[in-house]
Amino acid sequence: MEQSAVKTRKSHTAKDKHHAKYRLKASEHGIYPRMIQRNALTVVEKLQRSGYEAYVVGGCLRDLLLEKKPKDFDVATNASPEQIKKVFQRQCRLIGRRFRLAHIMFGRDVIEVATFRAEHQDDHHDELSRQNADGMLLRDNVFGNLENDSKRRDFTVNSLYYDPKNNVLIDYFNGVDDLHTGKLCLIGDAETRYQEDPVRMLRAIRFMAKLDMFLERSSEAPMKSCAPLLKNIPAARLFDESLKLLQSGSGLKTYELLKQYDLLQYLFPSLMPFFTEKQDSLAERMIRTALQSTDERIRDNLRVNPAFLFATFFWYPLREKMDQLKNEAGLNNFDAFSVAASEVLDGLCRALAVPKRHTIVVREIWALQLQLPKRSGNRAEKTLAQPKFRAGYDLMTMRAELEGGELIELAAWWHEYQLSNPQQREHLMVQQNDRDPKGAKTKKHRYRRRKPSHSKVKND
């Protein structure tokens, strides 16, 4: 009995020593409990009080170590989704089949809690683990311990765990050192990890651009051969990833990296014919201009709309399609626009599954490009009242910057019109009508139906 107790103590001591070398004093790296969102701390504390392991995990720690503001805070635990549900009851909502998660609700704030994952084995049941012929994980619900989970994370800089109770960072793969040296490195065999989830290639690009890191050579080598696997990713998921890539505040750098690694074609295949060797086509110049503007807006804490980005990306493909329809099918400008807009948006949606709420706005922004040149009569007033006028105007000013010519005068006129008072606008309209008398509309008289006179009634 005593011998078994001694053996148990020795095994625990060996295990503690093994884990000790991965445990860092968080305070030495500038991490303290007060820096963690209150609701995330509450989730960790409640799980620990219920007898489970629980840690703040992943990207939020990476951002704190880089002195950036985390977007959100996630938690990892050895409690199963059902056990998490039992702890938090109505406050908890279980989601997902491919990757089961728990969402703990604090009003509008949501803390995502994941159960520790483990490696997949051939004998696992389909409900727990499933892969396709290319090695992509279709289901990932094999649960394990903390060390197992750290191996299942994608990059070393994301495989960090924080215990706020003891103010300890757990780092199995030298993620803290990689952060300091700017090295982005996959955990495990890179080709296998890309096959398991091809979106990891897009995540690599995003982190390289956003965190100003370089991709470690062994993680970079398989990207070219694995890139076609992105065709297997659902279009809806690629749409979500495209927003993360282009609206991260480093959209222009991300775009250049996507081109460098030949990944852009899997997000925007219909743009490929508009790319040139010198990268100086109007479409390419517009994309760079729009992304630079978006990055500046994000730095200034201004709102950005994905619909505007899509409208800028595909304006020149739309215009080329319109010209083709007018020349080959003899369509007028309005009909050519309607057909071309549908075709261009269909191509975009096949690749990215852009929601209708965005494609409607894209159409409105494009339609304004046809309305903005028509200023005579009361057209300017009606155009200014359009809900998406500002986005349409911004696209026009970008076009003026790239194309020059009459668009420069048009952009300047609309700029002045927006800043003018009613009297000044009327003066601008008089000048415009003098320049374009044919476009000026005269007010039509509205004829009211005359009531019969009393005399006529008497005569009847």
UniProtKB/TrEMBL annotation:
The active site is at residues 72, 74, 154. Its EC number is 2.7.7.19. It catalyses: RNA(n) + ATP = RNA(n)-3'-adenine ribonucleotide + diphosphate. SUPFAM superfamilies: Nucleotidyltransferase, Poly A polymerase C-terminal region-like. One of its GO terms (biological process) is mRNA processing. Keywords: ATP-binding, mRNA processing, Nucleotide-binding, RNA-binding, Transcription, Transferase. NCBIfam families: pcnB. Adds poly(A) tail to the 3' end of many RNAs, which usually targets these RNAs for decay. Plays a significant role in the global control of gene expression, through influencing the rate of transcript degradation, and in the general RNA quality control. This is Poly(A) polymerase I.
